[in-house]
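Risk mitigation, structural track. In case the binding assays with 5'-O-[(L-methionyl)-sulphamoyl]adenosine fail to produce interpretable data, a predicted complex structure has been prepared as a fallback.
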Amino acid sequence: MAGGKPYYLTTPIYYVNDAPHLGHAYTTVACDALARFMRLDGRQVKFLTGTDEHGQKVEKSARATGVDPQTFCDRVSAQFRDVTRLMNVTNDDFIRTSEPRHVRGVQALWQELQQRGEIYLGRFAGWYAVRDEAFYDEGELVGGRAPTGAEVEWVEEENYFFRLSAWQDRLLKFYDDNPDFIAPRARRNEVISFVKGGLRDLSISRTSFTWGIPVPGDPRHVVYVWLDALANYITALGYPETKSGDFATFWPADLHAVGKDIIRFHCVYWPAFLMGAGLEPPKRVFANGWWTVEGQKMSKSVGNVIPPSQLVEQYGTDAVRYFMLRELPFGSDGDFSHRAVVGRINADLANGLGNLAQRVLSQINRNCAGKVPQPGPPAAADEALLATARGLLATLRGEFAEQAFHRALEALWQVIGDADRYVAEQAPWTLKKTDPKRMETVLYVLAEVIRHLAILVQPVVPAAAAKLLDQLALPADRRDFAALAKPLVPGTTLPKPEGIFPRFVEAPEPA
Ligand code: MSP
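Fallback model:
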């Protein structure tokens, strides 16, 4: 909805050296739920995702495939774009770091930093891990490898440096002044203790390979891939144009969602680069946890890397989205197992929301001539159930603001449980014979609760929610959060109800 307060959120941009898997789909789906939530809540949303295409790692992968880096990037970037479609993701833009708009913006940022005295030419000697695209101190190595387990190589080059050491106190003050900048809390503590440990100047150019953005005025160097990559969040807004357009509207970002492994880049280097260039840091960085698969780390050598297409084929887009956001707190690690997904599909979706909607709508269809029933005076139980449904929006706003998707879903499912108990207590099928007027009131109350649930669950299971809203005959302009206050109109004809969440039935083992 145009005109609302702007809300800008981003996913990490994904390296193209690897095909997309469920870990990538995870952050993107979470951001999509948040983007949809904010749009439904009247905010003017910009939701960015994309691909990170430069660096030694990508250059090596391209060479191994026998194609030039750009052709290689085009191919893999398209696969990430396909994932957004597959997962029903509503990103407003998709940035690629090989695009001219990005290259221009990065070079402008470099020049700005240089003019402000933040960059100097020096000599680098140290360990570099290509897999992490990160430099490590001798003291950080564990058994001759990076702390992440990546192989390191000794690098000695002339490099440009960013004066990171000069930012230690200003960063600590910034974290102090902005307690919500890093979430969850454990990550915040981790970053603060890293910065308190002392910062060294950061090498921000390389000369030993060429697949990158040339340093302005010194094209023997390419820009360090993390300075290049982080800048996507502003180049997509039209940087270096800051006074008008998207930058003026959307910066600073409301949220960068990132994996827990890349928190240092986002919470230390990025705010320092931005402040160094005279720009505001983002408002918040949230670090999500990592998925294992059937208890094991996903890895090519184990052969358990799950492509998002496989999940969608097996369970459907909405079910995967629901599972990812319900199964664990966004900041925690968790396990992706077939049993757990099927359990959620059957218990929460089919038997929970699906069954409630189907039962109520089919009774309305049979017993109220397929029209929204006419409610009579409400009883205390009706008021109580409606009050819980009406209270959901405020609860969900709080949970989404903290990226607590699992708690938002818990709150919705609590009301589904309340509605189930209400159905059992009120027994509308008995009222049909004893008190048909009261039956109409009960079914109306339930239809209203289902309307609330369907509107509020849209961010997480958009396709199923749309079907449910169709079955309530709600026009497109009655589906946002402002429309929660507009009750169903008695007498409206409803289409024939249909199940929205099928039960997952295991295929029999092949004989
Ligand atoms: N290109 C950088 C990010 C640059 S952002 C300016 C990068 N890319 S990545 O493709 O390697 O990782 C992207 C994200 O995927 C990271 O946030 C990482 O945490 C996440 N995940 C990779 N494997 C994952 C799981 N198994 N589970 C959850 N998230 C995972 O880093």
